[in-house]
Amino acid sequence: MSLRSIFVSGLITLVSLTAASGCKPFKLKPPAGFAEVDNHRHGAHMKGSDDVGLKVSVFDNVKGGTLAFWSHDLVEKLGRRGYVLTSQKPATSANGVHGTRFDFDYVPQGTDGPKRFYSAVLFATDRNLIVVQLAGKAELQGTYSSRMDEIAAATKTRGCRAGSKICKSEQPGSLTALAAAPAATLADGNP
Amino acid sequence: MKNNPRYLLLFILAAASVSVSAGCMKSSAGTAMPSYEEEGHSDAVQTASERAESYGDDGVGEFESAMPSDLAALGPNLLGPNVAVLAAPSRSRANEPSRDPVSGTSPTVGNDPGAEPAVEDHKRGAMGRQIIYTATMAVSVFNVQDAVALAETLPERHDGWIAQMNADTLVIKIPSKNLRAAMDEIAAMGVVESRTLLSNDVSDRYYDLQTRIAVLEKTHAQMLALLSKARNVTEALSVRAALDKITMELEVLKGQIRKLKDNVSFSTLTLNLLERGPHDATPSSNDPFPWVDELGVEATEWR
Questions:
Q1: Residues B195 and B211 reside in one and the same domain
Q2: Which of B50, B157, B200, B282 has the highest count of CB atoms within 10 angstroms of its CB?
């Protein structure tokens, strides 16, 4: 095998590896205490020993899809389903993309409980929306609240173009009022 | 002849008279319309009484056809003048207002005792239709066990009962007036995946049964009177045989109308509960961005 052929095959391998890794819009290793159940291009799902779930969901972004736009959409629609927004604060990914963290209380419809916590950190890039979510029983919220910041900070998000306005878009205004007045419930199937 | 103006004038006059007479015929036909309508009206009356006859193979029609044959079996000498008593009023009986055999109240067909059946039909609509409602719902919920427990309490709150039940399916009988409220309550348990409501209008069947029962009850009473007038054992046995046949038919019809009333009063609601798993999206209509449907506790928490 000549030196040239080794160089060519190495180059091909490097290019293909780069392309493969570049295709995936996020990177998050299972945090301590979580085991990865599922991982693919459009998301990953991990499970804690106490049944707390950690999930990354990836969606395609559209033109004009700023962080503020999607934050409003997220809070309003979850509000319709009975999610109560309790707090909202800025977050930053491992590679510096700005996001917003939303914490919700939730009681499954038609039941008296137990109450659940649901935290979602939303990142908007030019290509994707990346949502890092954590959910479990409400009594575990205290344990996982601080960990959610760590998990968001450990998540790498891809899809930002050079000089991107989306990735540098501003934080949404307070959406607590929006979530406090939920629209008609989805329960009747007629949102 | 063609060129003669006199003939031409005559021809025109003749044509005019023909057209006028045709017009007269037409107009006379027009003036005849009311009488035609009257005929139509009498037809309608006749149709109503014919309808009374045709209330069913085993209804008034049967009474009028079967009863005489039963009585004929007794022989003209045996029955004597009572045959006329039984047979003659049968047609007019069909026009009498029927009584509710179960409640004993009147009418399904209005309060006017002399009302014609055609009018009764009209009033029947005003009295309200007899409709059997059957509903099915599929609801996806966060926790099937909790939802089943909640659904089990539903009949208690709505004066109904559980007709059938398995792991995730319940068949509930609910008073028709509470069906809507019960369905709304179920819808609030989760996300409605499907919902159907079927209605079966059984008004005709219901009112037919009432009429037939009323007629048979009168016949029954008359047969009893006839039985008391029997002059010997043979006569008594013959009348008794006819009476038994009427009694049996009456009981069958009463059973049918009772079942019909139950079905109208209590709707059947079949509820199928599905567990909402991590991969089930919450349906949103007309939402260009349904991405949030895939988010939430249901999709994230590991159960």
A1: no
A2: B282
Element of type H or E holding B220:
helix B203-228
Burial of B31 (0-12, 13-18, 19+ CB in 10 A): exposed
Residue B143 lies in domain: 131-201+265-278+293-300
Cβ distance B295 to A134 less than 8 Å, yes or no, reads no
CB contact (8 A) between residue B188 and residue A133: no
Please give the ipTM for the structure prediction.
Answer: 0.77
Interchain pair B141, A83: CB under 8 A: no
A189: chain B residues, CB-CB within 8 Å: 187, 191-193, 195, 283
CA dihedral over B2, B8, B12, B15, signed as positive or negative: negative
Which CATH number does the domain housing residue A130 bear?
A: 3.40.1000.10
Inspect the interface and report whether the beta carbons of A52 and B147 lie closer than 8 Å. no
pLDDT in tens, chain B (303 residues): 445 656 655 555 555 554 444 433 333 333 333 333 333 333 333 333 333 333 333 333 333 333 333 333 333 333 333 333 333 333 333 333 333 333 333 333 333 333 333 434 444 554 578 999 999 999 988 788 888 998 999 999 999 999 999 988 999 999 999 999 999 999 888 888 889 999 999 999 999 999 999 999 999 999 999 999 989 999 999 999 999 999 999 999 999 999 999 999 999 999 999 887 655 665 555 567 778 888 888 888 877
Residue A73 buriedness (CB in 10 A; 0-12 / 13-18 / 19+)? middle
